[in-house]
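A.,

Following up on our hallway conversation. Structure tokens first:
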């Protein structure tokens, strides 16, 4: 037989051993990846996007040297253009697993408006409207945040107290404004934080039941008060709770690469495009002058992950290891009419230290006369415990 024709038949027929081995190797790799993804999704209770797509789960090698190099620096889009990108092409859930430890390092859920049900949209809107209302009542708070380089940040929930005798306190609640807000309006808003915390908690749990359970357990073990709940709440009262405070950002917020000073292992956050001032969620097409916002991506530096927030026409939910992995929001440019609004939930280390040190909200004997009057002025709907320095119910300590 002519060798030339024999070689031709070999090329067209049976594959070479080298090619067969490569195909077998690729098949094994796909099977291992599929098995890893199935196990991870099952054990961590990873949820799905609004269109119920199977979560995308990938191994990421931790780049510690890059994290150390960029720590404390402001990043722009060009600095991270080679990162794995999560954009707005489709509704999806993405999970990054550390290649060495096989621990979950990051979870993202993209829910595009075109895929949302009316109920999902209303649930998201309720949350963003609450923070927009809080902003309208308080204005801008002067919060200490060493990593922040632009924009504004406010917060709700619990923090360490700063006045004599006040060990643990809530963030200020704002003051009545003539023709805008009454004392009763503010009081209803403060009470509303309980329901908002529960709503956020439901979204968090649906994204990862295991991580949510971990955060709930930490909150209970550390004995810190939950955002929207009274000091000393326990048992069933904390079933929907996982954080002590919630920080929300707006007005072109960005920051440097940093790790959070939190007691909680993970941070849960949500991002969306809103109408300035109202908090109304907006599609790109709804922006009257067009959405020319650029930049402002969320980046997890050691795992080379970039979430392109301004390109996503929907709501983004993220879970990341705030105290452990260097992360940031990149710089960018804003536009007229709409803005990026976001919030993140955590358990503050400073609050944990106060609770460990004092074990109670306040020391009645050390309170100023003004604070005593404020405390007793609201004793009609709460039971005061002057000896132990606790209030049995109510979501705040003093009506600032």
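Then the amino acids I'd put at each of the 400 positions:
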């Amino acid at each position: 037989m002519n060798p030339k024709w024999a070689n031709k038949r070999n090329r067209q027929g049976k594959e070479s051993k080298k090619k067969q081995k490569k195909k077998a190797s690729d098949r094994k790799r796909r099977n291992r990846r599929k098995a890893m993804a199935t196990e991870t999704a099952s054990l961590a209770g990873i949820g799905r996007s609004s269109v119920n797509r199977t979560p995308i789960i990938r191994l990421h090698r931790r780049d510690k040297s890059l994290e150390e190099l960029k720590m404390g620096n402001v990043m722009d889009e060009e600095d991270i253009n080679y990162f794995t990108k999560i954009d707005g092409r489709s509704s999806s859930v993405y999970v990054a697993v550390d290649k060495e430890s096989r621990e979950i390092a990051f979870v993202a859920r993209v829910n595009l408006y075109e895929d949302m049900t009316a109920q999902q949209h209303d649930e998201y809107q309720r949350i963003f409207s609450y923070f927009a209302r809080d902003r309208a009542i308080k204005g801008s708070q002067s919060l200490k945040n060493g990593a922040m380089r632009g924009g504004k940040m406010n917060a709700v929930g619990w923090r360490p107290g700063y006045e004599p005798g006040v060990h643990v306190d809530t963030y200020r609640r704002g003051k009545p404004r003539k023709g805008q807000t009454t004392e009763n309006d503010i009081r209803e808003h403060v009470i509303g934080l309980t329901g908002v915390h529960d709503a956020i908690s439901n979204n968090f749990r649906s994204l990862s039941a295991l991580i949510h359970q971990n955060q709930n357990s930490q909150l209970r073990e550390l004995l810190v008060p939950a955002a929207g709940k009274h000091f000393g709440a326990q048992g069933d009262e904390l079933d929907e709770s996982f954080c002590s405070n919630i920080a929300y950002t707006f007005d072109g917020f960005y920051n440097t690469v940093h790790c959070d000073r939190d007691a909680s292992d993970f941070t849960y956050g949500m991002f969306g495009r809103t109408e300035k001032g109202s908090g109304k969620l907006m599609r790109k097409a709804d922006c009257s002058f067009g959405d020319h916002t650029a930049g402002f991506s969320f980046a997890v530096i050691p795992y080379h992950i970039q979430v392109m927030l301004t390109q996503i026409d929907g709501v983004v939910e993220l879970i990341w290891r705030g105290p452990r992995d260097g992360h940031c929001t990149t710089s960018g440019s804003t536009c007229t009419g709409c803005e990026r609004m976001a919030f993140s939930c955590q358990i503050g280390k400073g609050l944990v230290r106060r609770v460990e040190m004092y074990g109670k909200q306040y020391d009645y004997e050390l309170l100023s006369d003004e604070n005593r009057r404020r405390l007793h002025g609201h004793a009609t709907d709460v039971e005061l415990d002057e000896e132990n320095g606790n209030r049995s119910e109510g979501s705040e300590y003093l009506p600032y």
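The longest helix spans residues 17-44. Curious whether your intuition agrees with the design.

B.
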